[in-house]
Amino acid sequence: MLQNKIQQYTEEINRLAPSSSVEVEEFRLKYLVAKGLVKSLFEEFKTVSSEEKKTLGKVLNEFKQLAESKYAEWQTVFSDNSGVGLQREEGDLTLPGEGVELGSRHPISLVRKEVVAIFRKLGFVVSEGPEIEDDWHNFSALNFPPEHPARDMQDTFFVEKREGNDMALRTHTSSVQVRMMEMGKPPFRAVMPGRVYRNEAISARAHCFFHQIEGLYVDENVSFADLKQTLFYFVQELYGEGTKVRFRPSYFPFTEPSAEMDISCSICKGKGCNLCKQSGWVEILGCGMVDPNVLENCGIDSEKYSGFAFGMGIERITNLKYEIKDLRLFSENDVRFLSQFETELV
Ligand code: DAH
């Protein structure tokens, strides 16, 4: 009797091919637990005659080993994370799905989008250019004299020396102005966002890469009054009605006259604070009338056309909006910083 049972269960085990960890567990519960089949056969073994014990002892032990080794084998197949088991396992379709966590937009992207949206309302289109740029587009066409310090190894990351036209990482987005004017015909009305690179030691206030938005407007009869009104409108939209602006004379090789524009400090509203160094004003961009030499370098008749240009650092605009004091935060990808902008997801 016992012999028959052992044989019957042996055949059953040999036929088994579990297809999930659930079935493997069912096997264990049936055969291997304290009240399982293997144990009960051993109990029955105690009752057989000593004559039978001689042969059955060996058979029973072999059966026990078979059950244990099969269980061990199936367990490794279905419990590891190698995917071997998963291929055969269908999974529990009734389990709730895994939640997808929404990320957040980077503050630089948020501000870039906002600035671009404001200029779009004035009819500006968006244009982009390469980050690896030649000397002509980054410097020469923009009226930089050959000995200008910005071309210096200290400021520019050179990529490749080329006869009279070195390749470098662009140091400003003004290079895109040149590309745009070379390729098309006036009128031009565009903003040009992008990443720029300068060979600076990284600190809270400087970084070797950052972002700018360039603006260009070229047509017949464009005047400095147009420049002022455009930038005034921009500032009211971005920082709110009543934000004051002032223009200070400045110098850029590619504009004449040139100016820097300050706004009344958005943090203290002009009363004086750390950010504006108690002056009530903060500088936000450089601008000016496109130098006739630049127009001519790009094949545009400077007798017929005039234009204005401006360039601003997105990090700077962002700092004024969110009071971020350390530039390094923008590129460290620390979620504790980035997740603070979650509500701004648009
Ligand atoms: N390219 C300048 C810079 O990187 C910014 C700038 C100033 C751009 C005046 C302009 C401009 O278009 O007119 O500092």
Explain this structure to me?
The radius of gyration is 37 Å and the shape is elongated. The protein folds into two domains: 2-77; 107-344, BirA Bifunctional Protein, domain 2 (2-Layer Sandwich). The relative contact order is 0.11. The chain has helices at residues 2-15, 21-31, 37-46, 50-79, 84-88, 107-121, 135-138, 174-183, 224-239, 292-297, 314-322, 335-338; strands at 125-126, 132-134, 158-160, 167-169, 188-197, 209-219, 245-252, 255-264, 281-290, 306-313. It is 39% helix and 20% strand. A hairpin with a 2-residue loop joins strand 7 (245-252) and strand 8. 3,4-dihydroxyphenylalanine (DAH) binds next to strand 9 and strand 10.
Q: What share of residues are in beta strands?
A: 15-25%
Q: Name the CATH architecture of the largest domain.
A: 2-Layer Sandwich
Q: Taking strands numbered 1, 2, ... along the chain, how are they ordered across the largest sheet? A: 1-5-6-10-9-8-7
CATH class of the largest domain: Alpha Beta
CATH fold name of the largest domain:
BirA Bifunctional Protein, domain 2
Distance between the termini: 76 Å
Order of helices and strands: HHHHHHEEHEEHEEHEEEHEHH
Task: Find the count of extended strands (DSSP E, 2+ residues).
Answer: 10
Q: How many strands, which pairing sense, and closed or not: the largest β-sheet?
A: 7 strands, mixed
Structural class: alpha+beta
Key terms for this structure?
346 residues; alpha+beta; BirA Bifunctional Protein, domain 2; 2 domains; seven-stranded mixed β-sheet; 39% helix; binds 3,4-dihydroxyphenylalanine
